[in-house]
Amino acid sequence: MNSKVLGASTALALLAVVGALPAPASSVPRPGPTHALPLGAVGLTETRSTQTLQPGVTLTRIVRGADAPALAWTVEVAIPGGATSPDPDAPPTALKDRSSADELTGEVRSDGFDARAEQVMTPAVADYAGGSLGWRVRVGRFDSQSAATAELTRLRKAGYAGSAVYTGWDGDPADRGPWRIDVLTIDPVRFRGGFKASYGPDLENREKTSQLAAAAGATAAVNAGFFVLDPNAGAPGDPAGVGVYDGRLLSEPVNGRPGLVIRDTGRRSSVSRFTWKGRVLGRDASQPLDGIDRVPGLIRNCGGTADDTPTSLPLHDVTCTDHDELVAFTPEYGRQTPHGDGLEAVLDTHGRVLELRSPRGGPLPDGGSSVQATGSRVAELAALAPVGRPLRVERTLRDGDGRKVSLSSTTSILNGGPELVRDGRLHVTPTADGMVQPGNASFYYGWMHKRNPRTLAGVDAAGRTVLVTADGRSTDALGLSIPESAAVARALGLRDAINLDGGGSTTMVVGSEVINAPSDAAGERPVGDALLILPDRS
Questions:
Q1: In whole angstroms, how large is the CA radius of gyration of the chain?
Q2: pTM of the model
Q3: How do beta strands 454-460 and 513-514 pair?
Q4: Per-residue confidence (pLDDT) for residue 17, from 0 to 100
Q5: Cα–Cα nearest to 179, from 469, 505, 465, 420
Q6: pLDDT at residue 9 is higher than 70
Q7: What are phi and psi of 379, to 5 degrees?
Q8: Coil vs helix vs strand at 346
């Protein structure tokens, strides 16, 4: 059966039937080496089932440790007064220094709870030394989630905050699973369909991966880059990093962070780091741009200009600010540009200034664009853009070697990070990509060290593009830490690989069905963009 081309619904049914059985022999190309994944103890049961979705596209489900015994639940005590975030994937503030953890443990014990302090050790990666992250405080060990939740309720009544957690999510390398991983592989030698990124009708709103797939008639799809979720951090759905769609740069990079480069043909996919420069040019002068298609003053994941606060370096899941900005808007942004104090030059399809509006914000003419200014940049824009004059916006994208990136209509680039594999070697880069936050070890603990749902992408030595989702946050699928994600990517044969948006965003679609188990309580999460594999329509 594996040598036949299967419809999406048939492939889904087969996964359901044979997902836990050894895959039969097949001539279908599989993703990289077929040796066992480097997860958990040696010798765990592991099954793989592979189906062909269309010529050049295979879907493989890997289940490892399906027969693993259940692990304990516990209650993790949150640090009083710790940081909070509206992002459902934001890690709670859970780590303290040893003396503070011991003090909190004593207080919790004195209130009648079985509390303990545990040191958290994390492995070294390419640009982070690892070692001790700090100490966490936990209460009890329970056979079920309901028992842990009951203890959490009692703990809250005593004035503490915390969460019920499954110890299998801690990242212990001795755990026995289970893990459930789905792999899409595009072989450019056989592939005759299309491969592209989609953000939906506009940049500023979110859509589910399944909706984006259905709108394009995609064979398969996965969620892609990080995006704005909180309205206080920008326009929900807006990419939080580089975004190139159909060859157009519609979102500037978080300077220096990596992105996944793909082409419609499925050939020459790659992972590269990006920087950019933009300028607004009038007849006699020009001014530097701060951003593209985002709310002025709000820089999600930071990595902007030198005057941004608190930093111009990448800082993941942090929104930097800048009161003095010039931001360009394209027709793809949405129905309305952002409203607020400042000035906006509205341009027609030829780049001629139709009007200057203040306050800024409102609809754009069909095919038109604009440039918004805030703070001290208002006077600069006013001087550049008298009504009736041309105003030109230039955007230059450069790769990690400083070379100008030539974009064609067949190119898409999606933001991500950290890197996972480079030139076939483990290369995890949390420091460069802003996941190491000064004074906030709890972020690294929750985001990098602990197991979560993950979406990964990369290219193998044969030039095949590989898209991976790993389910998590359940007892049926533990998820992956970032170091584990890198190990899995390399074990699948990837020469270069990158982490994409994960957590509740992790979604894989085949045909009209979501085939993984998104972790949000509400089900599949609306996202900023997705990677789509399209059928051959020639």
A1: 24
A2: 0.92
A3: unpaired
A4: 35
A5: 469
A6: no
A7: -65, -35
A8: strand
